[in-house]
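User: Just a sanity check before I run the rest of the batch. Below are the structure tokens for the first item. I only need the designed sequence back.
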């Protein structure tokens, strides 16, 4: 092996790093200026507050004194346009063009996020406020509408039949769609080819399928062609048609994010493709797969038209999803709100609030079941691992004890009593 020649001492001295001597820092050139690395500066806050105040003032001046405008929505739109223009102007006084565009894009994204949060909060608060008269009554959750009419007070009747119908329909739909969706997503990623690309195209097209079309499909095939009649199971099939492409598409995206090095390491150990998918890919993407199931559940639990076409409507309690009409919470909300009576409208908003609480409960349960990080074990799994480790330690200790006694003793103790002497094993090394 040839060694590289050492550098001469003169070059070694020249390559040494020379540290600056202690004392005052050297003066920087006049054309350069150090930039602060802080995420938020005082000038940014002043620009936001100043542009917001100026935008509100200019909009109020236009609406009150100069132009015959009115309306809250128009005021907010014009004020926001003024705000963006003034904010860009203030930032441009201290920054260059790319920085101005970056700050403006950041403000727009945060504004859209704030609008979404405000809209969601408004929907939740308005629903709870309108249903405040029906929610305190216990009979609202323990009775059905068999003995209650539109003119009856809120102390009579309830939505127990709708709660049971929603739970049964969504659980049956999940049992049908979750295994099929996850298997299809694994197939799309682990078995690439023309057929996989064709299936992915169909799935992407089905994500935009109108809910009424899914209801008509099940109505034509299961109810008219097979003669099953309207039932909760037919509604579950319609909901499954809506949920399946959502679960497949979201799970497909999540499985694509699994690093390829994990698959390669599993293949290097001699594991088959499907065993790798079961023991490596799916556990790694567990949290994302849970999110895909949540998205599919959110799509199916709020559908009204497929349930109306396939399950019908009833005011009585029907816990059998395979026989007779069955109502769900979205369908009950739709029927209650159509009535002009204040009591029925209050029941409708109370039903909507119950639906939101039920969806939140399902999401929390899904997160608790499958929201663990990759490689994180539950308490029961950790306990099983501890017990297995103890059994392995005891087995290794017993083997070590047997080996310490010597193989001759083991042979002597296990061999039957005979006049023929035991043959000692040959311990000579080859």
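Assistant: Here's the designed sequence for the first item:
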């Amino acid at each position: 092996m040839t060694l590289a020649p050492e550098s001469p001492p003169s070059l070694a001295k020249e390559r040494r790093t020379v540290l600056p001597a202690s004392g005052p820092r050297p003066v920087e050139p006049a054309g350069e200026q150090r930039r602060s690395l802080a995420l938020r500066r005082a000038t940014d806050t002043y620009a936001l507050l100043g542009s917001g105040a100026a935008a509100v003032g200019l909009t109020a001046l236009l609406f009150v004194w100069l132009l015959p405008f009115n309306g809250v929505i128009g005021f907010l739109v014009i004020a926001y346009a003024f705000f963006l223009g003034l904010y860009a102007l203030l930032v441009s006084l201290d920054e260059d063009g790319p920085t101005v565009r970056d700050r403006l894009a950041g403000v727009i994204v945060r504004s859209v996020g704030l609008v979404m949060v405000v809209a969601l909060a408004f929907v939740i608060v308005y629903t709870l406020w309108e249903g405040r008269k029906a929610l305190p009554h216990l009979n609202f959750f323990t009775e059905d509408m068999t003995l209650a009419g539109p003119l009856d007070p809120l102390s009579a009747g309830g939505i127990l039949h709708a709660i049971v119908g929603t739970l049964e329909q969504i659980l049956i739909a999940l049992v049908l769609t979750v295994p099929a969706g996850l298997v299809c997503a694994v197939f799309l990623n682990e078995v690439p080819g023309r057929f996989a690309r064709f299936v992915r195209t169909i799935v992407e097209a089905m994500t935009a399928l109108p809910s009424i079309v899914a209801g008509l499909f099940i109505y034509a095939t299961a109810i008219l062609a097979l003669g099953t009649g309207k039932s909760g199971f037919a509604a579950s099939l319609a909901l499954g048609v809506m949920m399946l492409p959502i679960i497949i598409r979201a799970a497909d995206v999540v499985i694509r994010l699994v690093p390829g090095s994990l698959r390669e390491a599993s293949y290097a150990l001699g594991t088959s493709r499907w065993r790798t998918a079961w023991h490596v890919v799916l556990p790694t993407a567990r949290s994302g797969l849970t999110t895909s199931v949540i998205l599919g559940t959110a799509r199916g639990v709020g559908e009204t038209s497929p349930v109306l076409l396939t399950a019908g409507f009833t005011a009585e309690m029907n816990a059998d999803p395979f026989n007779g009409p069955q109502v769900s919470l979205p369908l009950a909300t739709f029927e209650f709100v159509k009535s002009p009576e204040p009591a029925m409208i209050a029941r409708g908003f109370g039903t909507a609030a119950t639906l939101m609480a039920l969806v939140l409960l399902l999401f929390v349960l899904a997160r608790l079941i499958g929201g663990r990080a990759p490689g994180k074990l539950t308490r029961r799994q950790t306990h099983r691992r501890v017990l297995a480790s103890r059994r392995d330690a005891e087995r290794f200790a017993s083997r070590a004890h047997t080996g310490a006694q010597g193989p001759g003793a083991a042979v002597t103790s296990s061999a039957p009593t005979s006049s023929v002497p035991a043959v000692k094993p040959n311990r000579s090394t080859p």
